[in-house]
Amino acid sequence: MPSLSLSETLHSLVHAYKKQLRNDIAAQKIDLPVTHIRALKGICRNPESTAQSIALRMQRDKAQITRVLNELQHSGFITKVDNPKDGRSQLLRPTAEGEKIMRQVNISERKTVAHMTQALCPDEVATFIQLANRISKSVDETFSANSVTQKRLSTERKSSVEKVSIAPQLMAEHAAVEPSIEDEHNE
Fold first, then answer.
1. Which residue of 73, 75, 121, 179 pairs with 183 in a disulfide if CB–CB is 3.0 to 4.6 A?
2. Quick check: pTM over 0.85?
3. A Pfam family for this UniProt protein (predicted)?
C-alpha cells in the first residue's frame, strides 16, 4: 500500500483530531460550536483579551468574532469590562460558568490526545511535537514575510496610482505657469 503524501497525512490527522475532539466534547455534554470554544479558550488564557485580540488570534473577521462574543456573553460564559488602558475597547473575562466549561474542554482535549497517541512512545510524541512546531513556525515566518511584502506592494501601488492621478494635474499647472517654447519665440 503506497504511503500518503505529507499533505494527505496532515489533512487526515487534522480531521481525525477534530472528529475525536468533537466526540470527547459531546461526551462532556458541552453544546457549543468550535468557534465559541476557541474564543472562550483564548479569553481564559489571556486576561488582557479584547474582541480585536481574539479576532487576530483566531484569524477571523472581527464582526464574526463580535457575534460569537455576544453569544458567549448572552449565555453567561463571559463578561465584558471597560479596558482601563483603552476606553474604546472592553476586556473579556470568563464567568464561573465559562471557567467550568473550559475545565470540561481541557479534560476532553487530554482524552483526545491520549486516544490519538496511545500507539506512540513518549519519545515519538516529543519528536512529533518538535517537528509539528517547526512546520508551524515555518508557515508563520512565510506568512509574516508575505504579509510584509503585500503591504509594501500595496503601498507602492497606491503611491503609483497617486502619481498617475496627479501627473495630468501637475502638467496642466506647469503649463499654465510656464510659457511654452513656442510662446517665447513669438514674443
1. 179
2. no
3. MarR_2
